[in-house]
Amino acid sequence: MRHPLSTYRLQIRESFTLDDAAEVTGYLRDLGVSWAYLSPLLEATPGSDHGYDVVDVTRVDPARGGAEGLARFAEAARGEGLGILIDIVPNHMGVSEPRTNAWWWDVLRQGRASAYADSFDIDWEFGGGKVRVPVLGDDLDAVIGEISYDPTPADDAPDGVIRYYDHAFPVAPGTGTDAAASGARDAIVALLDAQNFELRFWQDEAEDLNYRRFFAVTTLAGVRVELPEVFQATHAEILRWVREGLADGLRVDHPDGLVDPGGYLDRLAVALEEAGEGEVGYVLGEKILEHGEALPSWWKTAGTTGYDALAEIDRVLTDPAGEAALDALDARLRADSDLAPLTGWHDLIHDTKRRIADSIQVSEIRRLVRGLPAELREEFGADVLQDALAEILACFPVYRSYLPAGRAHLDAAAGEAEVRRPELGDVIEKLVPVLADTSREVAWRFQQTTGPVMAKGVEDTAFYRYTRLGSLTEVGGDPGEFSLDVAGFHTAQALRHASWPTAMTTLSTHDTKRGEDTRARIAVLAEIPERWAEVLGEFRGIASTGHGPFDNLLWQAIVGAWPASASTAEGLKVYRERLHAYAEKAAREASEVTGWWEQDDAFEERMHAVVDAATGPAAERVRAFVDEISPAGWSNGLSAKLLQIMGPGVPDVYQGSELWEQSLVDPDNRRAVDFAERRRMLASLDAPGAAFPAVDDTGAAKLLVTSRALRLRREHPLEIYRPLEAAGAASDHVVAFDRGGVFAVATRLPHGLAAAGGWRDTVVLLPDVPLIDVLTGRSFTGGPTALADLLAYYPVALLIF
User: Fold this and answer.
1) Residue 280: what pLDDT?
2) What is the layout of strands, in order, in the sheet containing 722-723?
3) CB within 8 Å of 163: residues ≥ 6 apart
4) Mind listing the pLDDT tens digit for each residue in 18-42?
5) What would the pLDDT profile of 231-261 be if each residue is shown by its tens digit?
6) For every residue of 441-474, which 3-state class applies, written as one string?
7) Which of 589, 768, 791 is nearest to 701 (CA)?
8) Has this prediction a pTM greater than 0.90?
């Protein structure tokens, strides 16, 4: 199997098309990249910046460059020696604008008679033969006067359309009437009754939807790729890319949403082998592993997209000594805000997952109830069964199981559920054998439901409530695991090298809650928890939401993402706008005081006042603290980048992150990248006689580390992973390893290192041969090497024979 040595993620969209991407292929080659890694390319909802809302599986999105653009990009990439990895979305399609999705439009028009009726995961019986579409601003009776019928025929709507503001829906064959066209209320009601869809209040999506969604996103409808004909139809264009040499590998988005991820990957592997004329395709699965969980070994994939590696790297750079003090600070903040103390991460996520199960996932759980054996429904009733299923889902320890494997996860969840809810013991005991029986559809559907409850309950709720150290609340991470010692880090890397050597590793993605260097700076707070408590108290005295833990989250984000551009009035204005968007999303996701469905205006006013104060009257004070912790944050950022690129797996550089990546949650992390500036800076670093760049706000030092590490990885096979030993007073502050004649050395816990007097007598034990640091060009004799000398210029070193 051909696989990349490294990748570089590019977000392809209308403002950065495939032709724009072709223009940067030379830069990617110069940077040292092995493969370009493209976001989804199939036609998406108009205006989509991310591409995961595919509306047409038969063609490359014209807005992103179309088929011709992909061909031109591929030609440019091949000319620069780059492979191509493309993101695909098999689980769902976009339906927010029905007319742009011909399949969905036809289903709405013809119902079960549509050729695409089985392509979407719709419970037709529950909907009374209709698709329930939750778009109305209120119940139908209240808004009926705002709905109209336009009888004008069109190719895709011979009988006209029904309109509700910007929404348009096709009229079923033979159901249009002159009376409805006149706008008469009774005629509109009768017309609606005759359709193959049912317009519903948008809040009904939580309880009464009858099609499977992506998580809780009603505008992304689940697709049944388990059906051979649907697989073939949804993958024909993708396989053409492989067959015609336009793609070398695929990144599969959210395989956990599929009925049978392993079976899907089997089918994909066969199809790719046929398209590639016998060559086994490189496939990655976007799979989030819980702490200690292993990727299914039978999956035909090179591995995950790397969140597990991200968690390991972040934690080896986090000071365990700060945990108790940050916990104590959190307890004080909660007490000051009249909030109950946290009893632990596990209890918190149980409660947030249960909240999701009882709200935005109710329609999915009710579908599970409907799929249970009739005798169970008769014995216990729908409400009790729904309660028991929700409790098991809230206790489920991983994103999903893959029966028959993973039965232990189901048993563990049931056991915990019985402890928490002993009155449900009898029903839980009878549910488990049914949920474990893979001959039943409900067992497969249950496995598809655990993931959405986990994702929405943990990533999108608990991560915004568990605020003691924001750098740990990251996708794929367990904030309950505060840190990882050096020995544990080496064990994890050795396991990856042995088991999944071509899996992707990452530090930033379009899904991360904070960019890698935002987290790197926030991690410094674990080294100075008392100082942070003092500064946070000062900041809260300037502006506060009145909710201590949320203040902690928000002020951490403010100092962690504070950019160099904030030194100018215009830069500060732009940052203020970014922070307002982040604060709103964070508060509503946490859904403790305010939320997406119902806002607390007073709280949100105070929240926005914090942002205004931080970027206004208090800006100089905030900047002073940022200056205080930035050097240690930069050190963490450089160490993380070196550990990722030189460690086992295939490192991905998220677009733009070769300089400081100080974004916040999406869409902030999809901002435009100035490739011209990066190209200029790289050329400057490569110029003969160029001076070593300083470790400063420009990010030039990170570009140096990234480019030199990527190039070295491209030029030298990294065949082993062997920890290097350090000795001396500060030996706990170094992480070093040998990749087979290539040696990476990185600093950890830099603030504590400086406070203790630096490296002093500490040495790293290297082979007794002449070595060169490719970052500085300096020579070393090998053997026990003083870290004070080796790391005199940078907190990292990259050595070769």
Assistant:
1) 77
2) 722-723, 734-738, 742-747, 796-800, 771-773, 779-780
3) 147, 148, 149, 150, 169
4) 999 999 999 999 999 999 999 999 9
5) 999 999 999 999 999 999 999 999 999 999 9
6) HHHHHHHHHHHHHHHHHHHCCHHHCCCCCHHHCC
7) 791
8) yes
Q: What is the dihedral of CA 754, 795, 9, 458, to 10 degrees?
A: -30
Provide CB contacts within 8 A for 681, sequence distance 6+. 659, 698, 700, 703
CA distances from 491 to 239, 292, 635, 648 (A): 38, 12, 23, 12
Distance CA 486, CA 548 (A): 33
DSSP 8-state class, residue 500:
-
Q: How far is residue 375's CA from residue 378's CA, in Å, rounded to a whole number?
A: 5
Q: Chain-centre distance of CA 696, in angstroms?
A: 28
Secondary structure letter of residue 801 according to DSSP = -
Strands 504-505 and 763-765: unpaired
Count CB neighbours of 541 within 10 A. 9
- pLDDT of 438-490, one tens digit each? 999 999 999 999 999 999 999 999 999 999 999 999 998 999 999 999 999 99
DSSP string covering 587-625: HHHHTSS--SSS--HHHHHHHHHHHHHHTTTTHHHHHHH
Provide the terminal-to-terminal Cα distance of the chain, rounded to the nearest Å.
Answer: 29
d(CA 265, CA 471): 33
Write the pLDDT tens digit of every residue in 354-404. Answer: 999 999 999 999 999 999 999 999 999 999 999 999 999 999 999 999 999
Dihedral of the CA atoms 305, 310, 312, 314 (nearest 10)? 180
- Res. 206 pLDDT band, cuts 50 70 90: confident
Q: Is the pLDDT of residue 277 over 90?
A: no
In the sheet where 763-765 sits, what is the strand order? 726-727, 763-765, 784-786
CB 576 within 8 A of CB 612: yes
Determine if residue 741 is left, alpha or beta; phi over 0 gives left, psi from -120 to 50 gives alpha, anything else beta.
left
Q: Give, as one character, the DSSP assignment of residue 298.
A: T
- For residue range 132-181, list pLDDT tens digits in order: 999 999 999 999 999 999 999 999 999 999 999 999 999 999 999 999 99
- Phi and psi, residue 697, nearest 5°: -60, -25
Q: Show the tokens assigned to 439.
A: 């001959």
Contact 103, 54 (CB under 8 A): no
What is the spatial distance between Cα 376 and Cα 369, in angstroms, rounded to a whole number?
9
Rounded CA separation 241/247 (Å): 5
In sequence order, what are the beta bridge partners of 653? 8
Residue type, 296: P
Please compute Rg for the chain using Cα positions.
27
Total count of residues recorded for the chain: 801
Q: Map tokens 């778009």 to a residue.
A: 135
